[in-house]
Amino acid sequence: MNLNPSTLLRGLLVTVVVLGVSIAVVFAVPAVVGADHGYVVLTGSMAPAIAAGDAIIVDDRPAARISEGDVITFVPSGFTSQSDVRVTHRVVAVHERADGVYFETKGDANEDPDPGLVPADRVIGVVVFSIPKFGYLVSFAGTPIGKLSIIVVPAVVLAVSEVYSLVEKGLGKQERER
């Protein structure tokens, strides 16, 4: 088997692209891993378990199946479910009251629990896993230069690769004709 640097580089590039696309698909369509939502973590309140810039995959779960130690994502009081504001913190206690289930939460990096309890109806779901630092790429992709680079850079790489292959085949054909 002939492994020249060009072949190794192409193999590495394909591996990186496939890995990147796979991660992007999981974030954009969490249902492929059986989850329901993908979010970018903006603060370090859950460090070191989940850092700022990480992407998280969140699965819907009934309140009765959420327990102490689970990391949940919820809409904080004062915001509507249509807002983009989400908090991801660990459940430190579950309180069952006559009017429903409430969760006491705390960021791992915070000294004190969050003020107020989180009603079950404000919980979006439980964090299934996080993708370290991928949130930075997601945030960058949302900018105009990010959108441009995500389309233009791969297109240029593909075009250059194709031109290189055509030139290589043309040179090989010329040499065989001699």
TrEMBL record:
Gene Ontology, cellular component aspect: membrane
UniProt superkingdom: Archaea
GO MF assignments: serine-type endopeptidase activity
Main location: membrane
InterPro entries: LexA/Signal_pep-like_sf (IPR036286), Peptidase_S26 (IPR019533), Peptidase_S26B (IPR001733)
Keyword Transmembrane helix in annotation: yes
Localization of this protein: Membrane
GO biological process, one term: signal peptide processing
SUPFAM superfamilies: LexA/Signal peptidase (SSF51306)
Transmembrane segments: 12-33, 148-167
Keywords, sorted A to Z: Membrane, Transmembrane, Transmembrane helix
The keyword Iron-sulfur appears for this protein: no
Name of the protein this chain belongs to: Signal peptidase, endoplasmic reticulum-type
